[in-house]
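so im writing up the methods section and need the Transcriptional regulator record in one place, dumping it here so i stop losing it
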Amino acid sequence: MARQDEQVTPMESCAHCTPPTDRKVEQPHKKALVNRVRRIEGQVGGVLNMIEDDRYCVDILTQISAVKSALDGVAIQILSTHAKGCVRQSVMDDGGDEAIEEMLGIVRKLIR
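--- predicted struct ---
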């Protein structure tokens, strides 16, 4: 499984970036990403069970924090792949102004 801090080579980056109208990209490390999100899904289910079981508030909040951190890790991995693939290709093709603005917009959303 690729970790968020591992370098992504150009071959591993968004392998098939397509024009924005299609919005489909073959994700490298797709299996690892799916496994991570499924694990997060299990954590969210655990939070639900904790609430239903009237668990201590701090324990629930600790689990919520872990879920948020895990989601951030997935987002960083996908963002890194996007920057090193789709955005890089757009910069080489046409200067990339639109792709860079799009990426900055999503970064703004992620840091809120």
